[in-house]
Write a structure and sequence with these properties.
This protein has four helices and four strands; from the N terminus they run αβαβαβαβ.
Length: 144
Amino acid sequence: MSVSAILFGCAIAGLAYVYVGYPAGIWIVSRLAPRPVRREPIEPTVTLLIAAHNEESSIASTIDNKLALDYPVERLELIVVSDGSTDRTDAIVAAFADRGVRLIRQDPRQGKTAAINRGIAQTRGEIVAFSDANSIWERSALRQ
């Protein structure tokens, strides 16, 4: 038997294991030692992170939308990272501070990735969700 035939056979055996053998093994183990799935309602803390640059035309409606989501406000953190905005974005976001919205100013402008990295370092939520500065979510978006 040649080396190439052995390699071909090993490759076929590997593919068979991945697509048939492993799933069959998992199915067998699940039947021999079943473990019940615990289901209970949970509400983890969620951080919504928005990176924004010169979004004065849409940031207020975006923040209003996120604050109106069907999720307990005490379990929700909203952070807006202003990436060197030169318009009224910072002032608009700061006006929501009394509703728990945090503004992080990034100056000079470094781009969306840097803004997200800066914001993620200051999150407290167990789950972090990212949003564009001009997106509108359905009320149940965090419940689905």
